[in-house]
Amino acid sequence: xxxxxxxxxxxxxxxxxxxxxxxxxxxxxxxxxxxxxxxxxxxxxxxxxxxxxxxxxxxxxxxxxxxxxxxxxxxxxxxx
Amino acid sequence: xxxxxxxxxxxxxxxxxxxxxxxxxxxxxxxxxxxxxxxxxxxxxxxxxxxxxxxxxxxxxxxxxxxxxxxxxxxxxxxx
Lengths: 80, 80
Hints:
- The structure is a homodimer.
- By secondary structure, the first copy, chain A, is of the alpha+beta class.
- Chain A has a single domain (2-79), classed as 2-Layer Sandwich (Mth169, Chain: A).
- Helix content of chain A is 35%, strand content 36%.
- Chain A is built from two helices and three strands.
- In chain A, strands 2-1-3 form a three-stranded antiparallel β-sheet.
- The longest helix of chain A has 16 residues, at 52-67.
- Chain A is elongated, with a radius of gyration of 16 Å.
- The termini of chain A are close together.
- β2 of chain A pairs antiparallel with β2 (33-46) of chain B, so a sheet runs across the interface.
């Protein structure tokens, strides 16, 4: 079972990496680009045969304790 | 128009960040976790009214020239 976790800074939290990309794209001549934000994506290979809801609950615990900083980041879990 | 670009190291390219997360999850007592890989996700706000195919071609150029390292990274573009 494959789990994808997308972690982005919350709206309103300053994202210097995104801003740097935004400026670099402008400098390279790309037009029509508005706000750019950068986050991280983590893919986990989980043991097959586990209950999907159980896996979801486990990945939420992983996010809260290690993968994300819940104070400033939002996470989105997708299980395939 | 919102564009999401997911950038991951190609299969076979060593991913030390992913390995570090894998070990940390094991150390925290999470079981049944196989391979972990970490990548980045970039969201771009593009001007509305642009042609979708044109936007896609433009984002491919952004990936090749700035966002990704096409030698070791794969990218996946999603336009909403």
